Amino acid sequence: MMTSNHHETHLKSSDFITDVVIGMSDGLTVPFALAAGLSGAVSSNSIIITAGIAEIVAGCIAMGLGGYLAGKTEQEHYESELQREYDEVAHVPEKEKQEVKDIFATYGISESGQELLANELARDKDKWVDFMMKFELGLEKPNANRARNSALTIGTAYFIGGLLPLSAYFFTNTPTNGLLVSALFTTICLFVFGYFKSKITGQRPIAGALKVTLIGLLAAAAAFGIAKLVA
Amino acid sequence: MMTSNHHETHLKSSDFITDVVIGMSDGLTVPFALAAGLSGAVSSNSIIITAGIAEIVAGCIAMGLGGYLAGKTEQEHYESELQREYDEVAHVPEKEKQEVKDIFATYGISESGQELLANELARDKDKWVDFMMKFELGLEKPNANRARNSALTIGTAYFIGGLLPLSAYFFTNTPTNGLLVSALFTTICLFVFGYFKSKITGQRPIAGALKVTLIGLLAAAAAFGIAKLVA
Predict the structure, then answer these.
(1) Domain assignment of residue A225, yes or no
(2) pLDDT digits over B135-152, tens only?
C-alpha cells in the first residue's frame, strides 16, 4: 500500500506533465503580463496583439529549443559519464571497488559487508557500471526521445498558455476593456492551472492555485506599473 | 585523478550556475526577439522600449517567483517523503528491508549479501532512511535557502540578460537602426554566453555557443516575420 503510493507519485510527475507545467506556467503569465503592461501605455489593441504574438512566438521557440538543448545535453552527459565508468571499471577496478566500499561506509555498513558487496558487484561489469551511474553519480538513463518530446510539449504548452490571455484583445475594442476581460479570464485560467498543477505534484491544491494566480497577477501589475512609468 | 574529475563536474554545475543559465538563456532570447518582432511592425523606438521593459519585468517576476515556488515544492516534497520513510521504517520494517533487498537484487547481489546489507542498514534508523531517500527515491536533501536564492538569481539573470538587447533601442532613433545594433550586440552576447554555458556544463564550447546563438536568432527572426504578418 505505502509502496504503491511512492510508485504513483513517480508515475504522476512524468516528463510530459513536467514539460506541460513548465511551458504553461510561463505561457499563462508572461504574455498576459506583457499585454497588461502595454494596456496602460498604448491606445490601440493592435499593438498589444502584435507585441503579444511576437512574444508568444519568441517564447515558444526559446523555451522549446531550450528544452531540446537541455534534453540533448542531459543525454550527452549521461553517455560520456557512462563511457568513463566503463573505462574506470576496466582499467582501475580496485579504485572503483574502493568507491563502492566508500558509498556503503557512509551508511554504516561493516568492512566485511563492504568487501562482499564490492566483490559481488564486480562479477557483472554492466550491472556494476549501472550501480556506479546511479549510486555514485545519481544519474538515470534519459529517455532517447526526451529532447524532441520536451521541445514540442514545452513549446505547445507555452503557445496555448499565451494565446488564452491575449485572445481577450481580439474581441474587445480598447486596451482598457481588453485588460479587464483578459485579467478576469486569465485569473480563472491561472487558478484552474494552479489547482491541477498542485494536485499532480502532490501539493495542497487550493493553496497552490492561489500562489500561481498571485504570481501571475503580481507580474501583470508590475508590468502595468513600469510600462506606465516608462511610456 | 579520475575520481577528482567527477567531483569537479559536480562542483561546477552548482545550483547558482544552473540558475544563472536558466535566467540568462531566456532573458537574452525572449526580450531580444520581442523587440526584433516589434521593429518590423511599429515606427517608434519608444513603444519597443515600453514593451521590452514590460516583458522583462513580467518575465523576471514570473521566472523568479516560479523558481521560488519550484524550490519550495522540492523542499516540501523531500520533507513529506522523509516523514513517510521514517514511518515505514518504524511501522513496517520488514517491508522496508525487502525493498532494500529488491534494490540490490537488480544489481545481481546474492541473497546472503542482500540479507547482510538489509540487517546492517537496519541498525541505524537515520542512515537507513537516508539510504532509502537516495537509493529508492533518488532524492537529495535540498539546500534550505535554495528557493529564495533561486528566485533572486533567476530573476536577476533574466533582468540583465533582457536589458542587454533592449539597450540598443535607447541609443538609436529608429526601430530599424535599433534592430541592427541590437541584433549585432545580442549575437555577440549569445555567443559569449553559449560559450561559457557549454564550458561549464562540459559540452564542446564552440558548438554549444553556435547552438545558443542560433536559437536566439531563430526566435528573433520568427517573431519579426509573424509580427510583420499580424501588424
Answers:
(1) yes
(2) 888 788 887 787 888 889
For residue A2, being part of any structural domain is answered with no
| Interface contact flag, B66 A25, Cβ < 8 Å | yes
% of chain A beyond a pLDDT of 70: 94
Q: Tell me the average pLDDT across B21-50.
A: 91
Any A CB within 8 A of B115 CB: no
Could you tell me if residue A5 is inside a domain? no
- Predicted confidence at residue A15, as pLDDT, reads 77
Q: Comparing C-alpha atoms, which of B161, B158, B182, B187 is closest to residue B172?
A: B182
Chain A residues 127-166 within an 8 A CB cutoff of chain B: 127-128, 130-131, 134-138, 140
Query: Number of Cβ pairs closer than 8 Å across A and B?
Result: 239
How many domains is chain A partitioned into structurally?
Answer: 1
Residue B219 structural domain: 14-230
Residue B75 covered by a domain: yes
Per 3-state DSSP, chain A is made up of helix, strand and coil in percentages (nearest 5) of 85, 0, 15
Q: Are B38 and B175 in contact (CB under 8 A)?
A: yes
pLDDT at residue A209, rounded to an integer: 93
Q: Choose the closest CB to A219 out of B61, B127, B140.
A: B61
Beta-carbon-side half-sphere exposure of residue A199 (alpha carbons within 13 Å): 7
- Asked whether the predicted pLDDT for residue A132 surpasses 80, the reply is yes
pLDDT of A46: 92
Nearest by CB to B38, which of A51, A84, A223? A51
DSSP per-residue string spanning B96-157: HHHHHHHHHHTTT--HHHHHHHHHHHTT-HHHHHHHIIIIIS---PPPTTHHHHHHHHHHHH
* pTM assigned to the model: 0.81
ipTM: 0.79
List B residues 65-84 in contact with A (Cβ-Cβ < 8 A): 65-66, 69, 73, 76-77, 80-81, 84
**Model confidence over A4-22: pLDDT tens digits?**
344 434 444 577 888 888 8
